[in-house]
Amino acid sequence: QGQEKLSCNPKKENGTHVVLCELGNPMKAGARITVDMELSVSGLEDMGDAITFQLQLRSKNSPSPTNASVTVTVPVEAQAEMELRGNSLPDTTVLPTSWEGVEGSRRLEDHGIKVEHVYELHNKGPSTVSGVTLRLAVPHELRGHILLYLLELGTEGGMNCTQHPALNPAQV
C-alpha cells in the first residue's frame, strides 16, 4: 500500500557485481510488491549499445521453483558534445602581389610566408569519448597551382594522425 525506501548493498558474488536489496521479512503468503530501482552505472563507454541485468527474487524459505531469474536489457547511449577550436599564427597574412616561389629551393622562405594552423578538439561532456575521428580538409591547390604548401602535421595528447599525400612534396 505505502512506499518504502529499500536498503541495498553492493557486493561481489562469483566474479560478478551483485546488488542485494532486502524487501521485507516476514512477507505474507501471496503478497504482491512492485519495486522501482534507479541504478547509476559508470564506465559504459565501450559496452556497446546495451547493458543486460539479471534480476532474481530469492527467498530464505525452503528452495522454491519460483526463484527464477529474468533478464532485462537496457539500451545505452553515451552522449558527448565535441567542440573544435582553431586559429592561425599569424592571424593575418598579407602576400605580395608579385611574389613567386623559387623552383627547386629547399629554403622555407623561398616557398612563401609561414602560417601555422592550430586546432584543438575539446570534449564538453557529459561522457568521455574514445575512437574519435577528425577529418580536416585543407585546400592545398587552386586550379593546378599551389595555394598552401603543407609542410608538416603533428598531434599532441596521444592521438594518431594520418599523413596527407601532398605533405611536403619538395622535401623542404
UniProtKB/TrEMBL annotation:
GO terms for molecular function: integrin binding. It comes from the Eukaryota. Coiled coil: none annotated. One of its GO terms (cellular component) is external side of plasma membrane. Gene3D superfamilies: ntegrin, alpha v. Chain A, domain 3, ntegrin, alpha v. Chain A, domain 4. InterPro entries: Integrin_alpha_Ig-like_2, Integrin_alpha_Ig-like_3, Integrin_dom_sf. Keywords: Glycoprotein, Integrin, Membrane. SUPFAM superfamilies: Integrin domains (SSF69179). It is a single-pass type I membrane protein. Residues 3-76 form the Integrin alpha second immunoglobulin-like domain. Residues 83-171 form the Integrin alpha third immunoglobulin-like domain. It is found in: Membrane. GO terms for biological process: angiogenesis; cell adhesion mediated by integrin; cell-cell adhesion; cell-matrix adhesion; integrin-mediated signaling pathway. This is ITA2B protein.
